[in-house]
Amino acid sequence: MASSSSSRAKRFKKRFTNLSLEKLMEKFLEQSLEAEENFYRLEEQRLQAEDLRRETEHSRELHMLQMLGQMFAGITRAAATQSPAVQPTRLSQSGPHIPPVRPSFGNHSHPAFEAEFANSSQQAAPVIERSFTLGRTAQRNMDSVLPLVKNTIPPLTSKKHKGQDGRIGVIGGCQEYTGAPYFAAISALKVGADLSHVFCTKDAATVIKSYSPELIVHPVLDSPNAVEEIEKWLPRLHSLVVGPGLGREDVILKAAKEVIEKSKSRGIPIVIDADGLWLIAKDPSLIQFYQRGILTPNFMEFTRLYEAMHHRPLDSTDLKSCAQQLSLAMGNVTIVLKGEEDIITDGNRVLSCIHSGSGRRCGGQGDLLSGSLGVFAHWAVSSTPDATKGMNPTLVAAFAATSLTRQCNRQAFDRHGRATTTSDMIQEICTAFRKLFES
After folding, report:
1. DSSP summary character for residue 358
2. Is the pLDDT of residue 163 over 60?
3. Mind listing the pLDDT tens digit for each residue in 79-117?
4. pLDDT tens digits, residue range 240-288?
5. What does the record give as EC number (predicted)?
6. 245 assigned binding-site residue
7. What three-state secondary structure class fits 353?
8. Is 22 assigned to a binding site?
9. Is 302 one of the annotated binding-site residues?
10. SS3 for 167?
11. What is the dihedral of CA 414, 408, 50, 139, to 10 degrees?
């Protein structure tokens, strides 16, 4: 009897302990979610404040330029009055013409003032032109790099065999994340690769296969001999995309690390995104000095990489310089910093992709970018130096992928608005590709 009472007491105590742990876990999860929400709220406030600061600074600079224009115009008029024989030379204007505002005097005009106004507007325009430098530079990037992209795209002919236009490997896909590797791999196919392989964990393989019969899925990433299994396929691959849906389990990250090392020895382009960037932030030497490596971080991932390399906080007011510094520190690895404008640099040159997209930011867009970049990188690296006019092929490839992703986003948003998803964007790859690169 005493034994029975004792066992019931133990069971009651055990149930009570489990209940307390469950409540503790619930509280912990609630606090974690609350902390995450607070973080994103603060980040949004910071970005809004940064936008406001930039707008204010831009307005102030424009006002100062206008004042300088008026001052220089006054100096020019004074010089012309003192030396009437010397005619002022009109400066060439490479930027957009800004029509001056003509003062109004009702139905009458003053001839002397109109002549003075004409002279001042003639001289002030080149000064104000400086405020448009950034936009014109980005537009020149578009105009000069897009033809190079077209040069690297292989023509479709009946003389080729399967696989010649690209065999792409995606390292990623685990139980929690099956969509990301699918998006990357199917985007590679839609852009023009002939074959697309996904090396994922066993749990993810069946799910990814069910998304599309067109992908070759290898359930080996969490196997004891994962590296050996993947290494057998490396001679057949033209480029590698590491990170979509990779997860952060130590065993999988260790396998991915060894696969990157094996791929570097073969000299193929390696695109690293998502959790692959987490791996690089922990061990930058893994990709450092490999100039066919391409990193595609968002702002948070970029911050983590920058601080890992420089051991100081990121200066978010000058992201172009920071991206260039990071690329140089990484040994001229190409960086694609995704954002309002995509910043692309190999440390020597900085490009900006400002191709029109939309305000919709659904999950998976980065996977479309990384998958398509794997194909463009293979095409660009395989092209002759004349095709890229001496520009780093990975820069050309990155510019192509960012432009395509933005165009897909724009077209999908025009159709679906706020309901736009990455699947909608993938359906736009064909028409977006044709519009950008085949027209």
Report:
1. -
2. yes
3. 555 544 444 333 333 344 434 444 343 344 444 434 443
4. 999 999 999 999 999 999 999 999 999 999 999 999 999 999 999 999 9
5. 4.2.1.93
6. yes
7. strand
8. no
9. yes
10. strand
11. -100
Contact 388, 346 (CB under 8 A): no
Any known ligand binding at 247?
Answer: no
Rounded Cα distance between 333 and 276, Å, is 15
CB 337 within 8 A of CB 355: no
Is residue 398 a contact partner of residue 334, using CB atoms and an 8 Å limit? Answer: yes
- This prediction's pTM: 0.70
Is 348 within any annotated ligand binding site? no
- The answer to whether the annotation marks 37 as part of a ligand binding site is no
CA distance 429 to 367: 13
Cα Rg of the chain (Å, integer): 28
- CA gap 68, 42 in Å, rounded: 39
Q: DSSP states of 209-227 as a string?
A: HHH-TTSEEEE-TTSTTHH
> Residues with Cβ < 8 Å from 378, sequence gap 6 or more?
166, 168, 193, 238, 239, 268, 269
Extract the tokens encoding 385.
């130096």
- The answer on pLDDT for 362 being more than 70 is yes
CB 261 within 8 A of CB 254: no
- Rounded Cα distance between 255 and 65, Å, is 56
Q: What type of residue sits at position 353?
A: C
364 labelled binding-site residue: yes
- The tokens for 312 are 């100081």
Q: What is the DSSP string of 13-66?
A: HHHHHHHHHHHHHHHHHHHHHHHHHHHHHHHHHHHHHHHHHHHHHHHHHHHHHH
Neighbours of 342 (CB within 10 A): 23
Q: Is 304 annotated as a binding residue?
A: yes
- Residue 367 labeled ligand binder: yes
Report CA torsion sign: 63, 65, 70, 74.
positive
